[in-house]
Amino acid sequence: MLRHTMLFAGYEFGVLRRNLAWPIIGIMQPVLYLLLFAPLLTSIAPNGTLAEALVMFTPAALVMIALFGSMFAGFGMINETRNGVLERLAVSQAWRPAIILGRVVKDMAMLVLQSVLVLGVAALMGLRISLAAMGLMLLLMAVTGLFSANLSYGLALAVRDENGMSQIVQFFLLPLMLLSGLMLPMSVAPEWMQTVAKFNPLYYAVEAGRAMFVDDFTHSTVPIAFGLFLVLGVLTLTWSVRSLRKLAG
Amino acid sequence: MIIEAHDLRKTFVAKRGRGKTEEVEAVRGIDLAVDEGEIFACLGPNGAGKTTTVRMLATFTAPTSGTARVAGFDVVKEAAMVRERIGYVGQNGGVDENAPGLESLVLAGRIAGLSRKQALARAEELFATFSLTEIANRPVKTLSGGQKRRFSLAIGLVNRPPLVFLDEPTTGLDPQNRANLWDEIRTLRDQGTSVLLTTHYLDEADALCDRLVIVDHGKIVAEGTPEKLKKEVSGDVVTLRLDDLEGARKLLAAQPYITETQTEGESLRAYLDDGEHNLPALLRALEAEDLAIRSISLDRATLDDVFLKHTGRSLRDAA
């Protein structure tokens, strides 16, 4: 089981290594946000410093790569529902969840690597956080990726149409982003928005990230975020493996 | 018996928009018995249920009813055992376009339980067999259709399966590549691998397979060796175009040397043995009745004539 997962992941890493340009372009968006958006937040930071703004915004920039990077991961799989690759794998000796999990492992690893780079840029700009905060944040990114990549593969296998999938992803992405306090903290939002945000799993990721960045590891959102994404990750994996089975009709 | 299927059926629920669904019976009771070491073909038009049948035998799709044993194991209850013993090459090839063929093959080998070293050795062997060694490291999307098809075949054989399924293996290939692939499939058979292939090409079924079934609308309409099936219809066929089709058909049906007549569109097909010697008599009979012939041809009967006999349609016209 684990062997098959690692085999698929290894294969995916190979594909990635041959096409390094795409993940590099993918990471430009959060870096640009850090460079061009974080300075705007200095005005609402308590002491008006960029370092404070970065503590507020860097976790958000990280969740953004989790969203934008992983939610589109499934697109590659839509083609594989048609070109016969999944059909072939489904009748091979492969442990079926490994077909999805191998890719998810790759997406999670990519996400962590991209996060390290974003954290590096933020540090250059003046972000100072503890090593513990950094480690936990990377772990949180991994579980966020577990959820959003699985969700994306599940969606791809259920929809099996690039146009449909991109509409659905776009439809959910914007409200999820705005209601997670990703751009501005939800504390500046009206009460009804704060209430709605409590139903958005990404809200907990962003808030937990912000808490951890100031070494507040016991903040209520921290265990909620980790637990929530682990559970959602398992649920979405189950869903995508079931969709894989339905492929044959 | 490497494949034994009894009364296989598959019904799909197809969406018809606005929440309506419709049941489509893709396979409506198929029995198959394939011997070890033979090339067995499912011949039929598109939509006949060939692919669905193969998918059920290869454990991709579960049958709605009926049973099948492949390589000694039940395709539903013992799917994992079946998967260890089959190779499956789908209609679309199933090769990742973005990676070199070598990578796909090594992955497939390792999933089948080989170590990295063993998988590389097996890859080398298969690439030599299919003349792929020089292009093994090129991304598959840069290869020609024939090369891609050979990679699919190589991947399907990585676990040295005793049985390999080939779903329309030569569709879209040029004549040269088709002939080469036929040779490769024959070589497989000669090495003891059983092959079940589907095709809508008459000449392919005729030239390549040891036995075949003709499938139409999800059912088997004829079964046997190509020779036996062609013997069912007489050896030769005269195809005529003339104005009074029905008059000519009646006249020819009454001739002692004509075994069967079929009208198909605007032409009349008359089956007979020893066509070269009987053709003059046929021409005289038509002339005596003043039936003007627009065109006439004499051919050997093919599997298309078998298909026509059983379904009333020509395979060339069947959609």
Structural features, described:
Chain A: It is found in: Cell membrane; Membrane. Chain A: It is a multi-pass membrane protein. Chain A: Residues 21-247 form the ABC transmembrane type-2 domain. The complex is a heterodimer of chains A (249) and B (319). Chain A has 249 residues and is mainly α. Chain A has one domain (2-246). Chain A is built from 11 helices and no strands. The longest helix of chain A is centred in the middle third of the chain and has 30 residues, at 96-125. The model of chain A has no long low-confidence stretch (mean pLDDT 90). Chain B folds into 2 domains: 36-61 and 75-229, P-loop containing nucleotide triphosphate hydrolases (Rossmann fold); 234-300, Alpha-Beta Plaits (2-Layer Sandwich). Chain B has 11 helices and 14 strands. Chain B has helices at 50-57, 79-84, 101-111, 116-129, 145-156, 175-190, 202-208, 226-232, 245-253, 275-288, 303-311, and strands at 3-15, 21-34, 39-43, 65-70, 73-74, 86-89, 163-167, 194-199, 211-216, 219-224, 236-242, 258-264, 267-272, 293-300. The mean pLDDT of chain B is 90. Chains A and B meet through helix 1 and helix 5 of A and helix 2, strand 6, helix 3 and helix 5 of B.
